[in-house]
Design goal:
By secondary structure, the chain is an alpha/beta fold. The protein is built from 14 helices and 12 strands. The protein is about 40% helix and about 15% strand.
């Protein structure tokens, strides 16, 4: 008998919805034309790309002309930062970001520092929220760009994006946000929130992998990151990934139409899970803001255990979870996000991220919590640190 899989790692990637696959399939075999070609057969595909672009633009309350398709969130982040710093180098060479960004931003910042840029990394509080006063104080006459993620991929904290956008506009600084975790989960209005550039990825909202987009506000003079042909209005070379674009458009349409009901359902289940874990497992803390967090995200730190051991033992019980970012799961170093919110190394090592979907049930959560309780107790029974702690009788 096949073991049941309980998938609680939706921040890493999501299942592509059947409706999305169905929408994509004809563009692999029947409608396989290159959208850049002039004949009618290819024109159908050009229209399909345009329709997907319009769906995504509508979700952001912007124009389809401002949406540029890429290969994913990492490419979009790279493009936004590198192109903005190059395009506005006459103004200056200073960029502001936060210490809890995804590595697609942090590693791009490191690259830019090696090429003459200066980067300020903002602190966050114990909930992972950027300090707006520190942001204001960090702005210089040479500041070109602020890049702060919409919602954190590890701890789920949602940033005060509208306020950051207002500050950026007030000081005449560009504002980019990595919305890979937020797009399709939270309502976003790029005009109202003064967002100049926004990155997103298809596979985080039940779409296909290998497709993303960068929103670039009209009037920004950003050059291409990928050079070659004249695709994407001469801003992003390469034959369009038509099946991926169609799939992303369908996934965005489904996500937006179900967002309100899905957020309510996931938030209720998330809060139920958080409540039980905090009440029934000793020496555990919730990471991230208690309420200003993604509807589907819960991140815990369990003292006296290694998160990796917990993950392996959960996997043996058919539960897929994570200790943080999917991009760093192979690393033995503790999460940079958990260190930034002030956790000591030994506590950060015992972290567990559980991210739900609209398919997650209360039964799934109850089963998972029972397994967590058993596994944590077992791991602690083998921990010299826990034994010493209990002997000392510290409460």
């Amino acid at each position: 008998m096949e073991k049941k899989i309980i998938y609680l790692d939706n921040a890493a990637t999501t299942r592509t919805k059947p409706e999305v696959v169905e929408a994509m399939l004809p563009y692999f075999t029947e409608k396989f034309g290159n959208p850049s070609s002039v004949y009618e057969f290819a024109g159908q595909n050009k229209n399909a790309v345009t329709e997907a672009r319009e769906v995504i633009a509508k979700a952001l309350h912007t124009s389809a002309a401002d949406i540029y398709f890429t290969a994913g969130g990492s490419e979009s982040d790279n493009w936004a930062l590198k192109a903005a710093m190059e395009a506005y180098q006459e103004k200056g060479n200073h960029l502001i970001t936060s210490k809890i960004e995804h590595h697609a931003i942090l590693h791009t910042c490191e690259y830019l520092e090696q090429h003459g840029c200066e980067v300020t990394y903002l602190d966050v509080d114990e909930n992972g929220v950027v300090d707006l006063e520190q942001l204001k104080n960090a702005i210089r006459p040479t500041t070109v760009l602020i890049s702060v993620m919409y919602a954190n991929n590890e701890i789920g904290t949602v940033q005060p994006i509208k306020e950051i956008g207002r500050i950026a506009k007030e000081y005449g600084v560009l504002f980019h946000t990595d919305a890979v975790q937020a797009f399709g989960q939270l309502p976003i209005d790029v005009e109202e929130e003064n967002i100049d550039m926004l990155s997103a990825s298809g596979h985080k909202l039940n779409g296909p992998k290998g497709i993303g987009f960068l929103y670039i506000k009209k009037g920004l003079k950003l050059r291409s990151l990928i050079h070659g042909g004249a695709q994407e209005r001469k801003r992003r070379a390469g034959t369009e990934n038509v099946p991926g674009i169609v799939g992303f458009g369908k996934a965005a349409e489904l996500a937006v139409s179900s967002m309100e009901a899905r957020a309510k359902q996931e938030t209720e289940l998330r809060d139920y899970m958080i409540g039980r874990v905090l009440a029934e497992v000793p020496y555990v803390r919730l990471n991230g803001h208690r309420t200003k967090r993604l509807p589907n995200n819960a991140n815990f730190s369990f003292q006296f255990i290694e998160g990796e051991s917990l993950l392996i033992m959960l996997d043996m019980k058919g539960i897929c979870a994570s200790s943080g970012s999917a991009c760093t799961s192979g690393s033995l170093d503790p999460s940079h996000v958990l260190l930034a919110i002030g956790l000591p190394h030994e506590v950060a090592h015992g972290s567990l991220r559980l991210t739900l979907s609209d398919e997650t049930t209360k039964e799934d959560i109850d089963y998972t919590i029972e397994q967590i309780k058993e596994i944590v107790a077992k791991l602690r029974s083998m921990s010299p640190l826990y034994e010493d702690f209990m002997k000392r009788g510290i409460k």
